[in-house]
Design goal:
3 domains, six-stranded antiparallel beta sheet, about 5% helix, globular
């Protein structure tokens, strides 16, 4: 593969680099005058598809071009508090996520005496404001009122594990139809290959080559990732899932260490709540949503929870147990064109700047670096230069830009230095072409 050298910055995907010459001394982005063809991006799409289909490869990858109807839920509460979850479009304007994502976090700190958790959540749901980001599609407003089930209860608050139903599902309505099909919903089957698509906090024990990551550091939520469970690491058995199992859950063995070969496995971390669990068909051509990411047990602790939670289990709500409820809200769109958008995805490593010639398209960028729980909103500064053919909206708190190019134009991106010493700022770029 030919390397294209730039003065500043390194352009990479999760698997390979397309340029070198990152300058540690240079903390000020330098705008490059030359406009490059988009083909210089080492698009990760083929690698993503190949990685998903191979049964002997597990773990997780940062992958943005697949599953455009899986989104990130942006949650703003009273004051300056923000949270984020994951989820999937299950119809023209309905978004499926975890119920605890749609409830104020204070409800989970103590037992309730005079009302159920569902009642308390519904009463206080209006305190939250929701937006949903679909990379390469756009940012969409959503209604503050979510649909949850009457028997929803957080399992960690003294309920009987293995006896109580979790019912940790919520359906949020978008204000405007995003004009794309929803995922197909179904039932878990024996021998399937399973993976989640989410936007959570993440970490690498062994870093991908030339990726800009530092081993054992926890990175912000935001970039789209695929976490895959190996054969034999996924179970519906209460005996295998342990004391954390509910009546309506199944589990996957949690091992967040991203190593090579058959030892690799997957898990969930902050921001992955609500992420869809997919099952890949035997022929590798179809995916079905069979579960929703709910919780990890035992609960991760420590400075780096995404690494410290090895030997725990990730639990998913079995959506087939609630198919009548889900279908009453919005039947899944069974369109065969649900994955037909043409998208490219790369991770840019800064600091630095780049100019790209892009077609008529929708563009998303999310900036991220070291995750500091005490400063969750401290992101590397990223700028996109608008012009007459390129218009953008920004969710600065979450480090997100969402843009639309009305015709072929120039995309100018500048990534500033990370506020954390020794950490390179990262930006996931997703570009999805739009028809004429």
């Amino acid at each position: 593969m030919s390397l294209i050298r730039f003065l500043t910055g390194t352009l990479v995907t999760a698997s390979a680099a397309t340029s070198t010459a990152y300058s540690q001394e240079n903390s000020t982005p330098i705008v490059l005058e030359k406009v490059h063809e988009i083909s210089i991006l080492d698009d990760s799409t083929a690698d993503e598809r190949d990685w998903i289909a191979k049964r002997n490869r597990g773990g997780f990858i940062v992958a943005g071009s697949q599953f455009f109807n899986v989104g990130k839920l942006l949650i703003k509460g009273p004051g300056e508090r923000t949270e984020a979850c994951s989820g999937a479009l299950i119809g023209s304007d309905k978004f499926l996520t975890a119920a605890h994502c749609a409830c104020p976090v204070e409800l989970f700190s103590s037992k309730l005496e005079e009302e159920t958790y569902a009642q308390a959540c519904r009463r206080r749901m209006s305190e939250l404001k929701f937006k949903i980001v679909f990379p390469g599609v756009g940012i969409f407003d959503a209604y503050s009122k979510a649909e949850i089930m009457d028997d929803y209860v957080p399992l960690h608050l003294g309920t009987k594990l293995g006896v109580t139903r979790n019912a940790d599902l919520a359906v949020i309505s978008l204000v405007n139809d995003p004009d794309m099909s929803g995922v197909k919903m179904g039932q878990l089957t024996e021998g399937g290959l399973h993976f989640t698509v989410g936007y959570g906090v993440h970490s690498f024990k062994i870093v991908p080559e030339d990726s800009g990551y530092v081993a054992d550091n926890t990175y912000d939520d935001g970039p789209k990732q695929i976490a895959k469970y190996l054969d034999g690491k996924f179970s519906t058995s209460w005996e295998e899932c342990g004391e954390g199992a509910g009546l309506d859950t199944f589990c996957g063995e949690y091992n967040p260490v991203a190593v090579k070969g058959k030892l690799a496995d997957a898990g969930a971390c902050n921001g992955d709540s609500g992420a869809p669990l997919f099952e890949l068909s035997a022929d590798g051509k179809a995916t079905t949503l069979v579960g929703v990411t709910s919780y990890v047990h035992p609960s991760p602790k420590g400075k780096n929870p995404c690494v410290a939670a090895a030997k725990a289990m990730t639990f998913f709500v079995d959506i087939s147990r609630y198919s009548d409820w889900l279908n009453s809200l919005q039947p899944s769109d069974d369109s065969d064109e649900q994955h037909m958008r043409t998208c490219r995805s790369s991770v840019l490593v800064g600091p630095g700047s780049i100019k790209l010639k892009i077609p008529k398209s929708a563009i998303s960028l999310v900036a991220y670096d070291f995750h500091d729980p005490g400063k969750p909103n401290q992101r590397p500064p990223t700028q996109v230069v608008e012009n007459g053919d390129l218009k953008c909206v920004q969710e600065q708190t979450f480090g997100i830009h969402s843009c639309e190019a009305s015709k072929e134009t120039t995309l100018s991106i500048s990534i500033g230095p990370s506020p954390f010493q020794g950490i390179k700022p990262l930006t996931q770029l997703v570009i999805c072409e739009k028809g004429s």
